[in-house]
Specification:
By secondary structure, this protein is of the alpha/beta class. It contains 9 helices and 12 strands.
Length: 292
């Protein structure tokens, strides 16, 4: 039986992973630990095969952040992660899986420039959040040896039933708007069910190194909006009348690049771990929107 410890109680990813592994009670035993009050330092990590570290300060979308938030990024996303990995190694854990982010490669490219990323792409974080994740990666990887395996996950935009963040905002627009700009950008996304399936392979195979889990399809923002609307029996029409203005504003307003810019992993970057993601993009949207 594999014994897994998820560090970061009540997080969306951690809770989803715990529920996913509960399908095989005879193969996996999963515990979670809260990282907020410091009591985790008194808990023994001995006898756990893998630690899945998801605790962290979420990315703040606003271009400007307070100095306090900046400090939190580094103290929680970096320092806490390193301390947790150090304890895991000292307590004899065989594998440490760190939840990083695609944002270590920077922010979305400008409209019309569909940036493609693979394992040979050099990280270039654009802000404190991405930099704190990359610093954490480096400090954790430095702990790796023949007895302590480190796996870094750099997922793109994660969504699924009950998720928070940008997806619910996009879904709200999709249920209301009659039309939406069609730019032709390409973005990688990751359905929570695909992430959990990927994580299972990482733990079963004791995978190490940097990994880039993502859905098999790269989609445009219009395709995302259109698919969500379709689940609810609506049709959103593509329009191009605003495209010239969007291209002019690209590079000047970060929100424009965030919505209509391109940032995608090359297809099949996950195949060495999981040959095929179990859920297609369309299936994942149906599940996220509650269609059985």
């Amino acid at each position: 039986m594999k014994r897994i410890l998820i560090t970061g109680a009540n997080s969306y990813i951690g809770t989803s992973a715990e529920k996913y592994f509960s399908q095989w009670p005879e193969q996996y035993h999963v515990d979670t630990v809260d990282m907020v009050d410091g009591s985790w330092r008194e808990k023994s990590f001995t006898n756990y095969d893998s630690v899945f570290h998801v605790a962290g300060i979420a990315h703040q979308d606003s271009g400007k952040i307070t100095e306090e938030r900046r400090r939190q990024y580094y103290s929680v996303n970096c320092d806490l992660a390193k301390e947790t990995a150090t304890k895991a190694k000292a307590d004899g854990v065989q594998q440490f899986v760190f939840m990083s982010s695609m944002i270590v490669y920077g922010s979305s490219s400008e409209v019309g420039n569909n940036q493609e990323i693979d394992l040979d792409t050099e990280p270039c974080p654009a802000g404190s959040y991405g930099d704190s994740k990359l610093m954490a990666e480096k400090s954790i990887v430095a702990l790796a040896d023949t007895c302590f395996c480190v796996c870094i996950l750099r997922p793109p935009f994660i969504y699924g039933p009950g998720c928070k963040g940008n997806y619910p905002r996009i879904a709200k627009l999709a249920r209301r708007l009659p039309f939406f700009p069609s730019i032709g950008n390409k973005r990688s996304m990751l359905f929570i069910g695909n992430l959990c399936a990927f994580l299972k392979e990482v733990i079963d195979k004791r995978v190490s190194g940097v990994q880039l889990p993502c859905n098999r399809e790269r989609v445009s923002t219009f395709e995302l909006v259109s698919c969500i609307a379709g689940v609810h029996g609506r049709r959103v029409l593509p329009i191009s009348i605003f495209n010239p203005a969007i291209r002019i504003l690209s590079g000047r307003l970060s929100i424009v690049d965030k919505v209509f810019g391109g940032m995608a992993y090359k297809q099949g970057v996950y195949a060495s771990v999981l040959p095929e993601m179990p859920y297609s993009f369309e299936e994942s949207i149906k599940l996220t929107e509650g269609e059985k």
